[in-house]
Write a sequence for this structure.
């Protein structure tokens, strides 16, 4: 039996893999009959050695192969010149792998696991009608909201529509993080319905959202607002050092996003380049990148680095350094760009 699981939603992908495992046999026996291969360079001979081994005291073996489809993905070689002989060799390679994978012994279950794969992937297309193929794209907003409601119900809780929308906005489509935050919320409310205020109190991404507001206030010279936001973050348990780290990180994100946007990079590529996991963070960063001049961003970034140095050299403690930074950066007039 051959399964193909691919897509960016690695949470749902892992759940599907767990379901496959549950259908194969006893968990203890399966543990001794499972092989996991990270196979960017796997050959048919290497796969044969693993897949044709007989199960030990069990009916089935499980072979999980990570990254095999990606090796033949057109995107992986975009922008590179390939010789005709290389193309020919790659064609022979994926064809021989496809022929072998659909002919493994009945005693072995093979699962190919990959991330985002192009629909022009030749190995995927060769296996599509001969394997059980499941795709796991990141959930769109409506489906994500439905997933949140289902997860809360599964955990024995209930949630208001406003709280659901706030969770979707703050956390985005990273289901590993979302599941963790929902678990925390269900425990926090202790049997009552989860409300929007609970999300604001409990969800860790709320602090990140407040950092966006603080960055805006600093960049727009709104000193009073910036001081109040910094004080609120500290009252919620964020240390001055943490706030400075988050400010530096976010301004760096904005600068890099602005540069990538000027290069006409797609939002998906920007998200990947910046290693972001939350669409909410990406949206806010791109908004800020479009609103402020590079000169103002660089001014703030360099002052943040100077403040970090003043703390590390013992000139100021973190709280005093943060207060001085906000006061100095918020002197002036607003400078924005289209």
């Amino acid at each position: 039996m051959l399964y193909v699981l691919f897509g960016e939603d690695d949470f749902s992908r892992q759940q599907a893999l767990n379901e496959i495992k549950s259908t194969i046999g006893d968990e203890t026996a399966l543990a001794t009959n499972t092989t996991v291969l990270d196979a960017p360079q796997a050959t048919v001979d290497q796969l044969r050695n693993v897949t044709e081994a007989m199960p030990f005291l069990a009916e089935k073996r499980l072979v999980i192969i990570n990254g095999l489809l990606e090796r033949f993905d057109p995107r992986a070689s975009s922008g590179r010149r390939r010789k005709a002989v290389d193309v020919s060799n790659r064609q022979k390679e994926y064809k021989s792998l496809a022929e072998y994978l659909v002919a493994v012994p009945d005693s072995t279950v093979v699962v190919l696991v990959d991330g985002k794969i192009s629909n022009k992937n030749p190995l995927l297309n060769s296996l599509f009608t001969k394997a059980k193929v499941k795709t796991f794209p990141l959930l769109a907003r409506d489906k994500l909201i439905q997933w949140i409601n289902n997860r809360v119900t599964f955990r024995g809780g209930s949630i208001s529509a406003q709280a659901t929308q706030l969770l979707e906005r703050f956390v985005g489509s990273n289901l590993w993080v979302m599941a963790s935050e929902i678990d925390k919320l269900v425990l926090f409310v202790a049997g009552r319905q989860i409300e929007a205020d609970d999300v604001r109190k409990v969800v860790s991404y709320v602090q990140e959202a407040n950092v966006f507001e603080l960055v805006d206030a600093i960049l727009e010279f709104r000193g009073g607002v910036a001081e109040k936001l910094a004080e609120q973050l500290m009252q919620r348990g964020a240390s001055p050092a943490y706030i400075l780290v988050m400010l530096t990180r976010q301004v760096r994100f904005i600068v890099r996003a602005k540069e990538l946007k000027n290069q006409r990079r797609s939002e998906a590529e920007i998200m990947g380049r910046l290693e972001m996991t939350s669409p909410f963070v990406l949206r806010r960063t791109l908004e800020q990148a479009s609103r402020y001049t590079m000169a103002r961003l660089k001014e703030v970034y360099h002052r943040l680095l100077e403040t970090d140095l003043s703390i590390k050299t013992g000139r100021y403690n973190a709280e005093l350094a943060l207060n001085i930074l906000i006061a100095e950066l918020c002197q002036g007039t607003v400078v924005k760009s289209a």
Summary: Residues 240-262 form the longest helix (23 residues). Residues 78-85, 333-338 have pLDDT under 50 and may be disordered. Strands lie at 2-6, 34-38, 61-66, 108-114, 132-135. The radius of gyration is 25 Å.
